[in-house]
Amino acid sequence: MIDSSRTVTKTLNDMAGFEASELRRAAASRFGGIGILEDIGLQLCALQETPEVRVDSPVVVVFSDDQDNATNAVRVVAAASQVSYHAVQVVKTDALDMEQCLHAMHQGRDAIKKTLLDNHHAMVIVGLPASPDFAATAASLLSTKSGQDPMTLLVATHSPVVAAICGAVVEAAAHKIPVVLDGLAAIVAGVLAAQLAPHATRHVLFAANSQPPHESQLQDTVGFSSQLRRPSITHIAVPHLPCGVGGLHVLALLRTASLLMSSLSLPKHPPIKPIDPPPATAPSTPSGPSSVVDGLLPPPPELRIFLTSVMFLTRLPAYMIIPDLDHNVRELVPSFCYFPCIGWAVGAFAAVWLVGGRVLFGSTPVAVILSTFASVWLTGCFHEDGVADTFDSFGGGWSKDDILRIMKDSRLGTYGCMGLLLMTALKLAVLAHLVDTTTTSTVVDPPLFSIVSGTLVAGHVLGRYSSLFILQFY
């Protein structure tokens, strides 16, 4: 790392007469063919887009599914360089589904949050191990399936390590932390993270080539360099070294580039934009299981957003209006604002059955049961399933991991069964009591309309609105 810094410093001293304006023009054109200055110029472009970025106090974060055998070498490298070290052990699995993928991504994000508490301002993320089977899978996915949904590709890697690093990269980008990816698994995760959230990872994302020979040959075959050399990712070519060493060398270049930018007092606005941007094409509407909300893509039509909320919270056939409608994140997240409206519609539907049952049968229990059955049918037992899972998880789980594991289990346990029965009985009793206290005969009078129906609608609206409150603050 010291040798790399000296090399860069000597090169910079040779260009003492270089004017700041010329340097800016050279950086904008990626320095052409003037050697190592091309790398510094690319880093300047990235640093320019992230004001006040800091590259001091680095930490090496190693993601591995084999804690004992895979991380010792990186730990030694970090100790020799006097750099903090943090290891994250990911649960090893032979098959990766969507839930496990999201869990691994959350684990990666939690790891970054933990390192931020120690005031680290730059990170080298190392992904271990990268077996030949994984290398072949990555080559197949990133070379023959380009353009597919990135979450589908992430699940198809069958690697929770890649999913965890992907979540870590997105979390670090959210805090504007410079990230150096080292190792084939980390670089694959970086490519997928840039596809998931190109706007979030635009500020700075570096990659080192310090992989074993079989990985470096695969990288050249797949064409990672062409995928990494895009406006959202800067690719720095360093010698093929053991994992961790190349990333620390890149940090030395980052420090030098940061000092160079400060010494030249380059203006931060407007930022220098890399040349050769990808051609602007109208993106097709994503149809995979998940997409990402991104400011670079045009927003979906409002009708699609509204119908997504209808399809998510009810069993109404919204797909008959838009056949390719799906629960992708890019349309589901904006649809949260319509949740209270859907609650109003469900509450009104239940209120109609409550009033109708009271008029037709003159019986409060019958009316209450009909109203509850109507709301359950319209929502497809969506909320009742959540209630049962909550009782099962908190009743049978002793730790956070146990609670989450039980909550993801689709089977119904004793706690869930009893909790659902008690909650349903409580709902029926409250509605029956409310109807009896506001009516005195079988004839429907204004209090039934104004109090009972209004309360029922308000309950459904506030129930859907509570999910927005939880998402916002928790």
TrEMBL record:
> Which compartments does it reside in?
Cell membrane
Q: Does the keyword Ribosomal protein apply?
A: no
Q: What is its EC number?
A: 2.7.8.26
Q: Which InterPro entries match?
A: CobS, Nict_dMeBzImd_PRibTrfase, Nict_dMeBzImd_PRibTrfase_sf
What are the boundaries of the region Disordered? 272-293
Q: Where is the composition biased (Low complexity)?
A: 282-293
Q: What class of enzyme is it?
A: transferase
Any one Pfam family match given in the protein's UniProt record, by short name: CobS
For this protein, what reaction is catalysed? alpha-ribazole + adenosylcob(III)inamide-GDP = adenosylcob(III)alamin + GMP + H(+); alpha-ribazole 5'-phosphate + adenosylcob(III)inamide-GDP = adenosylcob(III)alamin 5'-phosphate + GMP + H(+)
- Alphabetized PANTHER family for the sequence: ADENOSYLCOBINAMIDE-GDP RIBAZOLETRANSFERASE (PTHR34148:SF1)
Name of the protein described by the UniProt record: Adenosylcobinamide-GDP ribazoletransferase
This chain's source organism reads Aphanomyces astaci
Organism placement in taxonomy? Eukaryota, Sar, Stramenopiles, Oomycota, Saprolegniomycetes
